[in-house]
Amino acid sequence: MTIEDFREAAGPGPEAPARSIWLDLLGAEIRFRDVGGHLTRSVEAGAGEPVVLLHGISGHAETWVRTVTGLAQDFRVYALDMLGHGFTDKPPIEYSIQALGEHVLDFLDAVGVRAAHLVGQSLGGWVAAWLAATHPDRVASLVSVTGAGLQLTEDGAELTARVGRQVGDATRRALDGPTREKVRTRLEWLMHDPAVVTDELVEARYRIYTRPDFAAVAGRLVEAFTAGPRQEEMLTADRLRGIARPTLVLWTRQNPTMPWEVGERASRLIPGAAWYLMEDAGHWPQYEKPEEFLAVVGRFLRSVAGPADSTGGAA
């Protein structure tokens, strides 16, 4: 008998299991720490120089579920629930980029890290770039992924406001009496291929959206970062020109928020920044095309890691 005969006799093999958050995170751990007086959740894995992953508005650490363990092959990775999000504390404060950024700095202090490589997506990219501009001693490098907060020209202010309204409206629809269907619609809007949104991801976000503590601050978050952002916190051309840390700007051609041309211009304003445009992906390239994302971001991080950017170890 040939090998083909054996295969025919044996019949079809077992189907591969459906992709799961928990299968993606095998080998990682979930930690809760006191961070500046706020209980803070993180998903962590790996060893080496620290990489901190920051999600978008109304997001949570599961944004990075398909990339944590991949990056952990070379780095100590921390995917955070930022202040006011996920399972991290949600104080009734006036939310701002500065407040979220200071919480990230407090997290670095809590884990004993002097400086970290920051990878931020959407709102997380805004926070990461703000930290790179205002606290460069705490940032080893910056990766901005479809980052928010860009206001590069006077004419661009209206575009920034229009994108903010679009994001705010989509988020409010999901948060106003959240249902699984509304949550799925919000997640599918983020993707180029809505089929990548799994029932498990919908359920995880639905359970976070229906937590009473998140419902109590959700309106504050949406207002702060989409309808009424502080002008002094916007990523203007001058602020981007002042970033002196190694930077990669990663965008997607099908991003549903800020057009890729704006991201490309931002990369030219940041001295020495690298630029990468991904095809066939939406607002979450790290989730939608994780293999390509890991190849690009992993290569960048390895290229800037080392003694020249020594960051200290994690506690």
Can you walk me through this structure?
With 315 residues, the protein is of the alpha/beta class. It has a single domain, classed as Rossmann fold (3-Layer(aba) Sandwich), CATH 3.40.50. 43% of the residues lie in helices and 16% in strands. The protein is built from 13 helices and eight strands. Helix 6 (156-175) packs antiparallel against helix 9 (212-227) and helix 7 (180-190) packs across helix 8 (199-209). The longest helix is centred in the middle third of the chain and has 20 residues, at 156-175. It is globular and about 45 Å long. It holds the Pfam family Abhydrolase_1. InterPro entries: AB_hydrolase_1 (IPR000073), AB_hydrolase_fold (IPR029058). GO terms for molecular function: catalytic activity.
Q: What's the layout of helices and strands?
A:
Blueprint lengths: L2 H8 L10 H4 L4 E7 L2 E8 L4 E5 L13 H4 L4 E5 L16 H14 L5 E6 L1 H12 L4 E7 L10 H20 L4 H11 L8 H11 L2 H16 L9 H5 L5 E6 L7 H10 L4 E5 L6 H4 L1 H15 L11
Parallel strand pairs: 3-4, 3-5, 5-6, 6-7, 7-8
Antiparallel strand pairs: 1-2, 2-4
